[in-house]
Request: fold
Amino acid sequence: MAMLPYDDRDGSIWMDGELLPWREAKVPFLTHALHYGSGVFEGIRCYEGHIFKLTEHNKRLLEGCKIMDMKIKYTLEDVNRACREAVKANNITDGYIRPLAWRGAEQMGVSGQQTKIHLAVAAWEWPSYFSPEAREKGIALKTSHWRRPSPESAPVHAKACGLYMICTLSKHEAENAGYNDALMLDYRGRVAELTGANFFMVMDGALHTPEADCFLNGITRRTIIDIAKENGINVHERAIMPEELKDAEECFATGTAAEVTPIGKIDDMEFTVGPVTRKIREQYEKLVRTPAPASIEEDPRAVTA
Reply:
């Protein structure tokens, strides 16, 4: 079945303060972000009508705008409200929310200081990032030759659009080779993350995850670390070298889109979907479907770790 194009759908998109018909939410060809990657976005999940960690995600969006020198006029409350309006307008129960801030078309060239900073929010039904079959038996990863850049060479702690170019190239390479996704190393040759998710492995019953010093310290990543500690599972945030992967008992990926997804294969190494992964996934699925308080800003799940 053909995928429904994202520019040709029914519904509404919140853009610059108003809800527009989905097909009318467009930007000019000479938009700075299209040519120079000057945008920041978020990915947020909605479960049974409840938006999970809305405030935490949008705090990161606004912090990313500061890192990218994008002076956005909207407050945290404005962005939260826009997300809720987009969910309501599209009658989303279980779905995905995409806020995006970007530089407009007022200036063309590397410098974008005269551009207007726009904000839009789309929301759509999206049950799972990976197929149910892949999530159950574990996804297959191929190590990419592209590497995550150092903090001195890119704004690695912002969810900036331009940083995902090498993720797209890595994922295409993996898919063309018959894998689901790519495992990316960092500029030092250490294990870093997937193209859109963080990485965990289990050794001797404990969780080990790369230190997030040159890639996003994911919101789901932090949630999983909290869940593990609450369940008496030790967590080690440390440098992980590729040669250590063969000794892992289990591996899994975490992210807003990926949620908790088991990893069944990395290159020629195979792993089982074990008890630690299953327990973490069960606890996470229970947490995200726990109704939030009446005021989303008071949601204890939204407090930044």
